[in-house]
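Anyone? Bumping this.
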Amino acid sequence: MKPEDYISKRKFMEELRRYQKGSVSRRHFLGVTGLGAAAVVLGAAMPGLRTTPARAATDIGDRVVLATWPNYHDPKNFEIFTEQTGAFTQVNVFGSNEEMLAKLQAGGSGWDVFVPTNYTITTYVSEDLIEPLDLSKLPNYEAGAFDPRFSDAGIVDGTVYAVPKNWGTTGFAVNTSHTGGKEMASWKDFWDRTMDDFSGRTMVHDYQLTTIGNALKYFGYSFNSVDPKELADAEELLLKVKPHLFAISSDYQPAMRSGDAWMTMCWTGDGKQLNSDIPEIQYVLGKEGGELWSDYYAIPKGAPHREAAYALINFLIDPEVNAREVLAHGYPVADSRTNALLPKEILEDPILYPAQELLDALEFGAAATLTDPNRAELLARFKSA
Amino acid sequence: MTKRERNWLLLLPGGAWFLIMLVLPLTVVFIFSFGERGDAGGYVPAFTLEQYANLPARLTAFENTMILAPIGTLISMLIAYPLAYQLAVNTSRKWKTVLLVLVIVPFWTSILIRSYAWIYILGGQGIPNLLEMLGIEGVRLIYTPFAVLIGIIYGYLPLMVFPIYVSLDRLDKRLLEASSDLGAKPFATFMQVTLPLSVPGIATGCMLVFILLMGEFLIPALLGGGKVFFVGNALVDLFLQSRNWAYGSAVAVTLIVIMLVTVTVYMRLISRLNTQRDDVSIM
């Protein structure tokens, strides 16, 4: 055995304690302590296998806290990050940007990295909740590699506050085994069918931007409207639809997979994941329009593990790591270096890359919707009604 | 150190705790409830009754809470009483401990995880699927008020079992013998001796469960699918989504006032019940 394969008694106890506290995974624990390898050797299954002990290149601490969206990462990448740096990624999942903003406004979120959507970043900057990024700590960030449509929102007044993660659309997923052959192509179809033969089977997001926005599309209004009269129409529709809903939740995959729900508002990657596993579930963009969005990695002010935050972002935007992420979650990236590594069928997938005329009808979310008191209260009233 | 000084010293930790963790936050909530929402959310100081005037917008949440919390408490009590009775009266010493531990065992797992289990049990692949095999079709359980009711009764049942168990366990068995010696049938003994003597346990259990249910938000959020809203859910929403701290504070203050009134009335009733019983027993 080479000396670096040796783990001291003290280090073993430290690792055991970290494992007990839940800050490292079982796999990490077995890996670094050599117990996994020992078990393998004892089992005489693969005598040649040796695990590499965790050796941090720079000391970034033992954890990093990531606030992100459901079904949005390849868990394997986090394990590799832990192996490379010794830092465990603790993932917190959220259902709306409003929820993220609320946590940061209240203070003490404990996050190191979060994933804001394009329209929220100017508010984070004006509320002084987000840190300007030190690009020297993100060598994998190459501004020229990104499609500016999906990277511009990360730059406010010439300062980079956030680097692009993914982009995508908000449409709906529908289980076509229940549509009776009738085509679903618009938000009008979505809401009308919900009040008709899809009653009790439809889910909408717990998210003001998309749930109100797509109700506004029913009337042909802008997805981003803050006009009180147009919002009143949307509210009337939502209250009328509410008794017909299966649930109001942004975590809709379990119900779609179990068959409890037949239709749901849906983001690109969830649509792709559902469609890959259950081909009857199709992803539809409303022909009236809807949302086009881009998500970013950013660091909140006062992040407790700042160095680890930079290390994690830099790791995740590495084209090879990023390509693995795309294969796992099915959201397109704006990074040409990553796209160069992806197989052709992903780059030509109609769920990830919808037809141009459908894309043209979409709108980016507007910053005004995030802070507008009427939209916030409308969704809260709709839920408590 | 005089005795008086020592008493103050002993009260210090508890007093400081209450001041910092209860009185100060409540004061803040009270002050916030007269303020306004900031531009990007949060709170800006003001003096307005607007937030209280807006309370009817959360009427359904108050109604749901005020209906489901008492029903949940009542059903818990009806389920818990026979269970506690069997445990306290009809179980041997040896089994008592084992069975009591079994009542606590669910608490070893987080209510979050247990509620997720209920999502699957009540979901389409669970009970409705079984019923379908028996020919009963189209039963929808998950994300209904019924699912929330199941969840809260399941979650809070042990809190009801224990106080009732304690009151029955401490009951002087000689009273039961006396009652039967005097010719009372078992049912009459239960109604006239056992039940009145276990009222304190029932009262404590009901109060514990009712107060916790009034502030519940997790179970309705998970088993109600965002559709069966308690005041707790409205509060979470106001603070953690729409960021209207002023309005949220007004809703919170209202909930506290409702609870104070309900609990005070309840305590009065219980103590009157106890005095009446004492009067009877003196006679």
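Late reply, but here is one note on the structure posted above: Chain B touches chain A through 30 residues (CB under 8 Å).
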